[in-house]
């Protein structure tokens, strides 16, 4: 059972790397992260918004595990795309 989970997880990590190697994949992950509203400042977080934020944190943790440079690269690419 544990080997199956490891195999599936390793496949997921490989898929993540493949997706983020492409410009359109980075655009998709950027959009998904924007939906999580991770960086908004709220006085009180309701369960719905905390759930969204939690998903964003999970995605960032996966990015960090796959390659610690992916998120900074994503930020730089988005900045370059936005500012020409």
Defining traits:
flat, mainly alpha
Protein model, in words:
The protein has one domain. The chain has helices at 2-20, 23-36, 47-66, 70-83. Helix 1 crosses helix 3 and helix 2 (23-36) runs antiparallel to helix 3. It has 84 residues and is mainly alpha-helical. The N and C termini lie far apart (49 Å). The model has no long low-confidence stretch (mean pLDDT 84). The protein is 80% helix and 0% strand.
Structure, briefly:
With 84 residues, the protein is mostly helical. 80% of the residues lie in helices and 0% in strands. The protein has one domain.
- Determine the mean pLDDT: 84
Helical content class: over 70%
Number of helices: 4
* Overall shape: flat
Report the major sheet: none
End-to-end separation in angstroms reads 49 Å
The assigned structural class equals: mainly alpha
Number of strands: 0
Task: Name the beta content range.
Answer: under 5%
Radius of gyration: 15 Å
Could you outline the blueprint of secondary structure elements for this entry?
Layout: H1 2-20, H2 23-36, H3 47-66, H4 70-83
Helix pairs in contact: 1-3, 2-3
């Amino acid at each position: 059972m544990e080997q199956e989970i490891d195999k599936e997880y390793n496949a997921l990590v490989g898929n993540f790397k493949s997706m983020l190697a492409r410009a359109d994949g980075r655009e998709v992950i950027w959009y998904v992260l924007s939906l999580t509203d991770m960086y908004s400042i709220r006085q009180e977080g309701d369960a719905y918004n905390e759930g969204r934020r939690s998903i964003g944190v999970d995605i960032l943790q996966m990015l960090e595990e796959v390659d610690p440079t992916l998120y900074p690269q994503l930020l730089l690419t988005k900045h370059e795309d936005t500012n020409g």
